[in-house]
């Protein structure tokens, strides 16, 4: 059995939610391998870090907002 066949067999055993993650990762690998210069990779990596940072701030702010709502400090 080739690595290709083994990989496909493993993917078939995964739940659908994980198959989507594998699919996204494969898209990333294809994109990465098709990038000719490393600046594209650096830009992607920096963008990813920025998105994760913004999301973390968003969750923190959302939690603070929910707590303030629960304490009655603000109203909906």
Automatic annotation (TrEMBL):
It holds the Pfam family DUF2281. Residues 8-38 form the DUF2281 domain. It comes from the Bacteria. This is DUF2281 domain-containing protein. It comes from Dendronalium phyllosphericum CENA369.
């Amino acid at each position: 059995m080739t690595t290709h066949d083994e990989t496909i067999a493993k993917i078939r055993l995964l739940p659908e939610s994980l198959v989507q993650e594998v699919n996204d990762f494969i898209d990333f690998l294809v994109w990465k391998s098709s990038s000719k210069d490393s600046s594209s990779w650096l830009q992607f990596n920096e963008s990813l870090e920025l998105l994760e940072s913004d999301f973390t701030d968003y969750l923190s702010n959302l939690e603070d907002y929910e707590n303030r709502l629960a304490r009655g400090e603000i109203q909906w």
